[in-house]
């Protein structure tokens, strides 16, 4: 496998359920990201991990809990979600974030389409 | 802070028409600039990029030139096809330990 793979592609869950989204990258990258894409809203950065350490959390509600056990895997654990959390959740990876100029792109997975009922 | 502003869509064109999607940016440093494309039901794919002033990124007939004096990175294509119908995102990456900053996206619809 190559690139960034997200599973599942589609998920329907009730508001009381607990589920997890999985992301795996085979690009040798050390930075990974979760983005949320809602209809008619800009792409929202949720979390950033650099060398397995969380470096950004953009005021994401605690019902979203990320986990990065190693540089190749990223999870998003979901619990007690709301209908407004229904969206496309995109994972991305890139070369490690350093203090210098960053001219490398991020590579995206195909996303998980989440519907909360 | 950093921000990216794109023209609002949808942009509707006939096949073989000329395409321009405007993008301007604000950045505290000297950013690298990117265009991503998202086809229906898919994630984002890098279309092209430019890392310094006056660089031109190009791919699949699309072009964009890094204009530092006007802080712009407009996307152009001379002759669009129906298969180009997608959402296009302009993005920047600044110096430091930061993720990409994206614009709001512009939907392009090409009619046969």
Strand and helix map with partners:
The complex is a heterodimer of chains A (117) and B (112).
Chain A: E1 4-7, E2 10-13, E3 18-25, E4 31-37, E5 44-50, E6 53-57, E7 64-70, E8 73-79, E9 87-94, E10 107-108, E11 112-116
Parallel strand pairs in A: 2-11
Antiparallel strand pairs in A: 1-3, 3-8, 4-5, 4-9, 5-6, 7-8, 9-10, 9-11
Chain B: E1 3-6, E2 11-14, E3 19-21, E4 23-26, E5 32-38, E6 44-50, E7 56-59, E8 62-65, E9 75-77, E10 86-93, E11 101-102, E12 106-111
Parallel strand pairs in B: 2-12
Antiparallel strand pairs in B: 1-4, 3-9, 5-6, 5-10, 7-8, 8-9, 10-11, 10-12
Provide a compact summary of the structure:
The complex is a heterodimer of chains A (117) and B (112). With 117 residues, chain A is an all-beta fold.
Write a structural description.
The complex is a heterodimer of chains A (117) and B (112). Chain A has strands spanning 4-7, 10-13, 18-25, 31-37, 44-50, 53-57, 64-70, 73-79, 87-94, 107-108, 112-116. Chain A is mainly β and 117 residues long. By secondary structure, chain B is mainly β. The model of chain B has no long low-confidence stretch (mean pLDDT 93). Chain B has no helices and twelve strands. In chain B, strands 2, 5, 6, 10, 11 and 12 form a six-stranded mixed sheet that branches. In chain B, strands 3-9-8-7 form a four-stranded antiparallel sheet, with no helix packed on it. Chain B is globular and about 45 Å long. Chains A and B meet through β5 and β10 of A and β5 and β6 of B.
